[in-house]
Amino acid sequence: MVEGEEKFNIFGEISNGTTTNSSSTSSDVYLSTGWPTFTTSFITNIVIGSVIMIIFFFLRIIYRNFYNARLIKSNGLNSPLITSPFQWIIYTITYQMEAIYESRGIDAYMHLQFLYLCIQILSIIMVFGIGILLPINYTSITEETANVVLNTLDTVTVGTIQPNSKRLWAHALSIPIFTMIAFYFYQKTNTIYFEKRIRWMSKHHERNYTVLVREMSRSISNADDMREFFSRFFDSKSILSCHIIYKEAKLRSLWRKHKHVQRSLERVLSESDIKGVPPTRAVGWRPGMFGGKTVDSVEYFTKKLEQVDRELRIAQEDASIKKDLSISQDLEWRVSNITPSNIKKLTNMTSTAGFITFSRMSHASQAAQCLFSKNVEKFKVTPAPEIKNIKWKNMIVPNRSRFFRRIVSSIIFFVIFCFYTIPVTAISAISNIQTLSKVPVLNWLLEVVNLNDTLRGFVEGYLPSLALVLFLALLPLFIKIIIHFNKEDTRTQFYHKVFTVYWAFLVINVFIVVSIAGTVLGILFKMLENLTLKDIATLLGQSLPKQSSFFINYILVQALTSVPIDIVRPIELIAGIIRSSRESSFGQKMKALSHDDPTSLNSIKYARELLIFVITLSYSTLSPLILPFGLLYFLMDFFVSKYNHIYSFCPKYQSGGMIWPLVFNRLCIGLVIYQLTGIGLFVLKTFIPGIVISFLMPFFTLFYWWRNVDKYKKPSSVLSLDICPEEDYFGNEFVKSYEDPVLSIADLEINNNFKNDHNLNHHNLLNNFKV
User: Fold this and answer.
1) Which long-range contacts (CB under 8 A, 24 or more apart) does 311-318 make?
2) Which of 4, 64, 518, 538 is the most exposed place for a label (fewest CB within 10 A)?
3) Which of 193, 211, 150 is nearest to 381 (CA)?
4) Residue 572: in which H helix or E strand, if any?
5) 97-121: string of b/e by CB count within 10 Å (b at 16+)?
């Protein structure tokens, strides 16, 4: 450094004089960690993102059935939208949002609406942030800081402004302005959700005529008892059907075995038709290729299916028989059969959950809003989920048991929370080489990274952000394993739990822990000196905005590395290839490739997207430079998500957009976090007007949140009676829709001549095995 030149050091102070040794551990060591680090990270991310997209370009052609599964089902395999190398880009961009709602469902529509909401908010506040706040930060030069060389990324943050400066008025006013902008677009999206949700609940669909009843009395042991109870409140003609969920473990085990054997028979029949050679399988431990005994696979699985079918029907009849120990039974019979094993068996067969299908939507809506017992814990009635959304074996888990399971899982999550703060803090420290270099055993790091600007940028910019992304990418796997213990009764509820827990992990460990750890580590050695409380507050006020450089690099990694990986989906692709390799027919291969549940993928994406929104919004006042990169992330994510919803994802059920209320709650929490961050900034800057203005904002936000929840929660959960279709539904279409699948095995009619004719059309044969 030239003698006499002044530069900012790590603590936002000015260092004068001669050049210092790069290995020095004094507090005046200078290291420019701003623009070189950012430039290196930005270029690295662009290169990696470009490589991933080029790989996707070729993978999309090679594995056409995987990346175009949804469009192949509607447009066919040879559609130009699939075969053209570039037309898919234009088609994705120009595809209308309303068409997504009609053809892809409300869940996909609300996900894209959420991303569009973030794009709108960040686009507008970026005008104020980049146009007004950033120039104010950059030109905050006083007599004390004249002739300072502004060559670090931190000099465009609010940390350059002196405490109690009048320039902070712009930052103070930005908080209510940004809050009002967020309120407007939150309200606009809420209105859109409410309108689409009403349309979804009004459709002629089995779910809208049906309710789920939980925690029924033990006196209700079968569907007849259930119908008799609810006939006291509704006309018996208005109840189309009642279905109880069976608790019998043996019955459900046999049903799963029946499905497995049936699927195996379908596979070997398809293989026989395609290859023209009867498939065989080994009997015993020695494979056929080594001289083991082999049998005809079709004959083997047919006999096995007949055997399992007989066992299943016996179990079905046994479960359907009404178990009654009433006084009409012979006294000797009752006494001799009341044994511990019989009591346990009869108790297990009695379920507390079931479904009622009505002839009108209005009856279902009334049932979902009424209390049927003075004990509020009994006869809990809610709108029914879609059939493929139900986890049948979890439906019979009592609420008390599920409550205990949730407590246990919450304790486990708390332990994991505490554990994760340690490596996250370590990763945050890696991004602050200057501070680490002050530790005697680590001062060699400064010499290493000073060898090359690119190396320094890679170590301080890209590497810590990538390490944090990869480390946190492992979390969803552990979260899903733990939440499985809860026995959630629908897939939607399971993935919503995954979303809420993962979001909490990300906000606490990425945003809060990194902000606090980075801020404290940045001034740790200064705080150990004899400083006054005012000096420490000043240092914190300068250090907090500087964490934006870490988060800019983090957002870049997410936007240009993580988001492109979302369109490639390598793990799902590999799993789909392995599954499809076991299939023979084209239809089954397509089904195996598109097996993954989009709700599972989107629950993770929602949490990550909300984190980026919270980070960008919270630092929008402190460091407006973060806004373009937050906007870049959501633009990239919007395109990738839109492509996946249009081309790839094949959802088996719809939740009705029920994740949006959870997202809205966390959007409001993110707004409060932004306002609390502003309060902390103005406290550290000792700017009283900013403290007063910011202090009121969280209360306005909480009131706004409460009013919206109060306004939309009930009307969006149950269809109001004044818009319910008035006509009765007649027909048998919905009568058995919600019957427990363990009772829904059709009659087996196996053609005895097929043993000698393996070329029999397997589609006709398999119609006799349908579940």
Assistant:
1) 311/254, 312/251, 312/254, 312/255, 312/257, 312/258, 312/745, 313/745, 315/248, 315/250, 315/251, 315/254, 316/251, 316/742, 316/743, 316/745, 318/248, 318/251
2) 4
3) 211
4) helix 570-580
5) eeebbeebbbbbbbbbbbbbbbbbb
Reference 497, options 508, 517, 507, 483; nearest CA is 483
How many angstroms separate the CA atoms of 227 and 357, rounded?
Answer: 10
CB 329 within 8 A of CB 358: no
CB contact set of 164 (below 8 Å; sequence gap of 6+): 685, 686, 687
pLDDT digits (tens, 9 = 90+) for 673-731: 999 988 888 888 888 999 999 999 999 999 999 999 999 998 898 988 888 877 666 66
pLDDT single digits (tens) 508-563: 888 878 777 655 555 444 544 555 555 555 555 455 566 778 888 889 999 999 99
Give 108-145 as a DSSP string: HHHHHHHHHHHHHHHHHHHHHIIIIIHHHHHT---GGG
Q: Which structure tokens are listed for 347?
A: 């108790």
* Rounded Cα distance, 572 and 566, in Å: 10
CB 614 within 8 A of CB 673: yes
pTM of the model: 0.83
* Cα 100 from Cα 107, distance rounded (Å): 10
CA distance 77 to 615: 42
What are residue 569's phi and psi, to 5 degrees? Answer: 45, 65
First-to-final CA distance of the chain = 79
Own/partner pairs, 446-454, CB within 8 angstroms, 24+ separation = 446/22, 446/23, 446/29, 446/31, 447/22, 447/23, 450/22, 450/31, 453/36, 453/40, 454/36, 454/40
* Ordered DSSP codes for 456-477: HHIIIIIHHHHHHHHHHHTHHH
Tokens 């800057």 correspond to: 685
The rounded distance, in Å, linking the Cα atoms of 14 and 21 is 17
Q: In whole angstroms, what is the distance from residue 368 CA to residue 356 CA?
A: 11
* C-alpha torsion sign, points 439, 441, 443, 445: negative
- pLDDT digit string, tens, across residues 148-206: 434 466 677 887 788 888 889 999 999 999 999 999 999 999 999 999 999 999 988 88
In angstroms, the CA 539 to CA 588 distance is: 63
Which residues are paired to 14 by β-bridges? 8
Contact 270, 591 (CB under 8 A): no
Over its C-alpha atoms, the chain yields an Rg (Å, rounded) of: 32
Paired residues of 390 in beta bridges: 490
Pick the closest to residue 30 from 437, 434, 449 (CA basis).
434
- Six token digits for residue 28: 């005046």
CA-to-CA separations, 393 to 77, 79, 347, 390, 488, in angstroms, rounded: 37, 41, 16, 9, 10
Tokens linked to 733? 């279409």
Q: Output phi, psi for 390, to 5 deg.
A: -85, 135
* Total Cβ atoms within 10 A of residue 224: 12
Contact between 160 and 12 (Cβ < 8 Å): yes
Q: How far apart are CA 212 and CA 242, in angstroms?
A: 10
What is the mean pLDDT of the segment spanning 312-323?
68
Percentage helix, strand, coil, to 5, in the chain?
Answer: 70, 5, 25
8 A C-beta contact, residue 134 and residue 624: yes
DSSP 290: G
**Least confident span in 36-40, 312-316, 524-528:** 524-528
Written as one letter, the residue type at 728 is: D
Q: Token pair of 711, please? A: 């306004």
d(CA 747, CA 726) in angstroms, rounded, equals: 37
Q: Could you tell me the residue ranges of all domains in the chain?
A: 1-30, 37-142+171-203+400-718, 212-395+745-769
